[in-house]
Amino acid sequence: MKNPKIVVVGSCNTDMVVKANKLPAPGETVLGGTFLMNPGGKGANQAVAAARLGGNVALISKIGNDLFGRQSIELFRAEGIDTDYVFTDNKNPSGVALISVDSSGENCIIVASGANSSLDISDINKAQKILIEASIILIQFEIPMQTVEYVIKFASKYNKKIILNPAPAQILSEQFLTSISLIVPNRIEAELLTGIKVYDWESAKKAADKMEEKGLKNIIITLGSLGVLVKTKSNHYIIPAHEVKAVDTTAAGDTFCGALCVALSEGQDIISAAKFANKASSITVTRMGAQSSIPNKKELLL
Q1: For the sheet containing 13-19, what is the strand order?
Q2: What are the beta bridge partners of residue 61?
Q3: In this predicted model, what pLDDT tens digit does every residue of 62-75 receive, in sequence order?
Q4: Which has more confidence, 128 or 173?
Q5: What pTM does this model have?
Q6: Residue 146 buriedness (CB in 10 A; 0-12 / 13-18 / 19+)
Q7: d(CA 200, CA 23)
Q8: pLDDT digit string (tens) for 26-35?
C-alpha cells in the first residue's frame, strides 16, 4: 500500500439499531420495527467514508479479541484501509453502540466503549511511523481524552494538518486548540465549546467567532437540515443543505468528516471540500445504518 495521506485515530464499534415511530422518553417502552446490526464507531465510520470516497487511509484503533473485532478487521481490509495499527485488547470486548432511530431520522445513541477506552499512549507510540507519514490526521472523542491530547501534541510537533471532530461533545483543554488545523463540530458541540446556543445561521456565526477567539483557525459547523457554516480568515461562508428525505442521520457527521479529508488531501480549498462533504452526508441520511449508508465516489459524481 502507498503511504497513507489520511490517518484516522478513533473508535471502532458494532452498532445495534432499532427503528421506531418515536424515541422513548425516560421510563417509556416503545415498540420498534426493524432491527439492524452494523459496523460503526466514529473513527471506523470516518475511515470507511474516506476510503470509499477515494482516500488513501490508515486507521489507528482498538478492538476486542472477539467476533465483532474480527469482523471489523475483515471489513476494513475489504475497504482498502490499512489495519496495521488496529490493536487488539485481550481483556475488554469490542465497543458496542445501541441506537434508536425515529420516523424522521433523528437518533439517540448509547455507547459501551469496551476496547476503545484502552487505546492509550503506548499504542500511539507504536503507530508513530504512520502518523509521521500522514498529511492529514483526523481524530474524535470516542477514545480517552489523554490519548486525543497526546496525538495532537505529537502531530503538531511534526507540523501535521490535524482535523478535530469534537464528538461526542466534550471539552478539550484550550492549550491544545491552537494546534488544531480545522475543527468540525455540530451545533451541540459548538454550544459546549462556546456557551452560545446554536439554532440558526446568525447564532452559528457568533459561535464560530467565539471559537476563533479561542485560537481556532478554521471552523466548520454542521447544522443538519440547514447546511454547513464555514469560517476561515474572519469570513463566514454558508453552504445550504441538499433537500433530501432523511431516514437515518447516524453517520452523517462521520461521512462529512471523512469526505472533507479526502477533498482536502486532493488539494481542494476548504469551501470546495465542505461542499463535497455536504453532498456526501446528504446521501448518507437517506439510508439506514452507519457504514452501510456511506456513499462511494461514483455516487457523488452523478
Answers
A1: 35-40, 13-19, 95-101, 107-112
A2: 86
A3: 999 999 999 999 99
A4: 128
A5: 0.91
A6: exposed
A7: 24
A8: 899 999 888 9
